[in-house]
Amino acid sequence: MAIIEEFLASIHAFIKTKDALKLQDWLRVEPPLPEHYYKLGAELKAKYKDGNVLERYIEKLLPENANAKADEGDVWPGFLAFMKAYLEFWRDVDFEDLLRTHTQLSELVNSCITALSNATYGIVVLPTVIQLSAALAKLAMTLDKRPDLTRNRRAVVDQGGEGRKTLVEGTAESIQRAFTMCLTERTSNRNGIGKDGKPEGKKVGIYSFANLVLKLLFQCRKTRLANQLFTNISQNSPPLSLYPASQRVTYLYYLGRFQFANGHFYHAQICLQSSYDQCHAQCISQRRMILIYLIASNLILGRFPSPALMSRPEAQGIVDKFFPVAKAIKKGDFVAFKRSLGPESGNEEWFFQKGVLLPMLYRCEVLVWRSLARRVFLLTYQAPGDVNSRKAPTLDFTDFAAAAQYCQMMLEMSGKSTPFNNRQHVNTMFMKPTEQSIPERRKLSAASGVICGNHTPDVKEVEAIVASLVQQGLLHGFISHNQGKFAILGAKQRGGAVNAGFPGVWDVLKTKAAREGKNTQIPGWVLRERQVGGMGGVVNLSGIARPVGSGS
Amino acid sequence: MSAAPAAGAAPTSKATTSNKTTDAAKDTQPAAVLEEDDEFEDFPVENWSQEETEVPGGNAHLWEESWDDDDTSEDFSAQLKEELKKVEAGRKR
Question: What PANTHER family does this protein's entry cite (chain A) (predicted)?
């Protein structure tokens, strides 16, 4: 019996018994595979070069069963087309040519997704679509790291003429079709949860596909395209808790990173903490990736890694990068802070690659200002001798400005011994004599100065900063513009001037988030069953079928 | 959904592609300048229990929430103090 005949006979049997897992196990593409698959390929090459002949042969061996019983499965046109695509893949594939393999595998995945769309029988190929999509995503990720292979690739231009898409983005779009199909499937229970408490029908595949799409979108740095995916999940998905742990942890990792990239650090922290808590204890690599963004979010929110966290195996090599940042924030030391994130630290490139450099630089700076104000207050405030004095404790803006000016001066002085450190133009033609006449001061980039570059902070500016800190709730009191002072409110009731004037950052931000309901509802994370009914069953599907590349 | 075939296949595909990487590296710059952990790896198993997530010490005390540093004797404070003295002297003048 020829291999192809044997193969199709087995497939037919799995279809009839609706054995989705066996189908998945047989319809594989990712090497290494048993010799049988290569023999199948050779046989197809020898006998079925002509696609029409192959098609007729498949139809003969996979006949429709007109007398199928209610509980029996059956073939359908989409499946026959997929089987043809699958056999053609094995006939034509050359694993040495990765780029061509990617094109062939994309076609195969598309064909399998079309087979999945059949309302009655499609679900039997769901595990197969997941497996093929995972193989396709992996191949796309590999190719993305090999520009030498993709250099000559013709850009995939979509029909809308929106321009060139990268191979990774195109792959994400293909897989998003399967995601949308699973997400929007009409199920007998309107909330998408079956009688066994598990996601019903194709909805079981939602997060498998979502995670593949997210992986690809993060790889090609088009995370904004994930917006639509998260919106659609919020509207149509059963609760995340009904899905397996690996899917939950991966999804929350990407959702947390998405929230982080969009400046929603409180939400990011909740997603990432949950992802970390649910991650398998022995999956150190994944725990490490989660931890990078979890620590960055927490630093911005005023929470620093504890010694217990620092001693974890997954924290090794990470915490020592973040530690100097936390230390500088604690002291209000601008010089140490800028250094901890600058090239001197040796970590700038690493922070940048991970996408945490700029958020930390701009957001943690607020905390450094708060600590600096606190430090100046500690150094200058003298409690009145009279315990019953009604005079409010104050921070003088002249003092605060002097401290800021001192920090600015230290930043400009640091590293002056190496002339190439100051970012002057390498061509001496463009160097003005005036710059050379004051060699002590280093030229600072905008982000390297206390306020901006080489600008020296003045009283007016530090007053504005205090006003901003008060508005954010990070300082508690009021400003007397006439006296040039910040006055602390409630020193007696709140256990002293320092405690009253400088409340804990995390406490302030947590309370604020709770007030805004940020800890109970997180966009993209379905915590509870959707409330259904009462609206006459109208489900708004507009926008759902939008492809990944069409923007939001 | 079975994790078995996918999990079994995961390391193998890396083996095939890494061979190619070595070949290409001979005549081009090594493309693999990316860090070893730039990607969120697939999990080797599909599902696990709450118990399997537990690590020694638990996750209750991972974060320091009160970290304000009142020590004004260290270098940075000492230097600031000097600066502030100058301001004070200026006021008295």
Answer: NUCLEAR MRNA EXPORT PROTEIN THP1, UNCHARACTERIZED PROTEASOME COMPONENT REGION PCI-CONTAINING
**CA A516 – CA A500 distance, rounded (Å):** 23
| pLDDT tens, position by position, B1-26 | 333 333 333 333 333 333 433 443 33
Q: Is residue B80 part of a domain?
A: yes
User: What amino acid is encoded at A444 in this protein?
Assistant: L
Where does residue A268 rank: exposed (0-12), middle (13-18), buried (19+ CB within 10 A)?
Answer: buried
Number of structural domains chain B divides into: 1
Strand, helix or coil at A291?
helix
Contact (Cβ atoms closer than 8 angstroms) between residue B64 and residue A383: no
Contacts 24+ apart (CB under 8 A), A507-516: A507/B65, A508/A302, A508/A472, A508/A473, A508/A474, A509/A266, A509/A301, A509/A302, A510/A301, A512/A473, A513/A266
Amino acid at A528: R
Interface of B with A in 48-87 (CB under 8 A): 48, 52-55, 57, 59, 61-70, 72, 74, 76-77, 79-81, 83-84, 86-87
CB-CB neighbours of A190 under 10 Å: 14
- Low-confidence stretches of chain A (pLDDT beneath 50): 155-161, 417-425, 435-438, 533-545, 547, 551-552
Q: Which residues of A126-157 are buried (b: 16+ CB within 10 A; e: fewer)?
A: bbbbbbbbbbbbbbbbbbbbbeebbeeeeebe
Q: What is the pLDDT of residues B19-62, one digit of tens each?
A: 433 443 334 343 344 445 578 999 999 999 999 999 988 888 99
Q: Cα(first)–Cα(last) distance of chain A, in Å?
A: 54
Q: Is residue B28 in some structural domain?
A: no
Strand partners, A396: A485
How close B93 comes to chain A (CA, Å)? 15
Task: Answer yes or no: is B40 within a domain.
Answer: no
Q: Give the closest residue to A165 by CA, choosing from A180, A144, A186.
A: A144
CA distance, residue A245 to nearest chain B CA (Å): 5
- pLDDT tens for each residue of A303-326: 999 999 999 999 999 999 999 999
Name, in order, each residue with C-beta under 8 angstroms of B71's C-beta and a sequence gap of 6 or more.
B77
pLDDT of residue B81: 93
> Number of A:B CB contacts under 8 A?
176
- Whether B39 maps to a domain, the answer reads no
Residue-range definition of the domain harbouring residue B83:
66-92
Choose from A250, A280, A458 for mutation: most chain B CBs within 10 A: A280
